Amino acid sequence: MTTPSVKQARTTARYYGFEKVLETLPGFATLMRKRSIADLQLFAGYVWAREGGRGPCPLVRTKQVQDEKKSWSEYAWGSRTIHLLPRHHDLYSLLHELAHALGNRDKLTHGPAFRRRCIRLYKTYGDWNGVVDWEKET
Q1: What are 60's strand-pairing partners?
Q2: pLDDT (tens digit, 9 = 90+) per residue, 100-131?
Q3: pLDDT at residue 74 in the model
């Protein structure tokens, strides 16, 4: 029997692998462009309102760390804050974290409900048409 933490780790690893493919797509160029925190906060408010987020829009802040390679961006439920590493100051990372914030009842952190929501956000607010050419990517 697979424990919940093992299942969680597997779904996260699979989704991050899929995101690595998405990062190479031409339609993701706009989503990957660096933005200021002020621009990201404005965009978060826009998405939050359009998506019907509950409560106030999460704050968007820069995550201060000693070694960026050993850290990650995250959404903090308690403070309703999206902490983005400097290398993640882009719409792609922001939409990923907003997908977490919008899915407060997800059973798995990167499970099916999260993946559907995140991909829909990428398609709705970015230049991506939702197509992955697997022949080209391999």
Answers
A1: 82
A2: 999 977 766 788 888 899 999 999 998 777 77
A3: 92
User: What's the pTM value of the predicted model, to 2 decimals?
Assistant: 0.83
Identity at 94, one-letter amino acid code: L
Selection from 32, 40, 60 nearest residue 122 by Cα: 32
Q: Which position has the token pair 């970015």?
A: 126
- CA nearest 132: which of 35, 46, 20, 39? 20
Task: Count the alpha carbons within 13 Å of 34 in the hemisphere toward its beta carbon.
Answer: 4
Answer left, alpha or beta for residue 39, where phi above 0 means left and psi between -120 and 50 means alpha: alpha
Q: End-to-end CA distance of the chain, in Å?
A: 33
| Confidence band, pLDDT 50/70/90 cuts, at residue 137 | very low
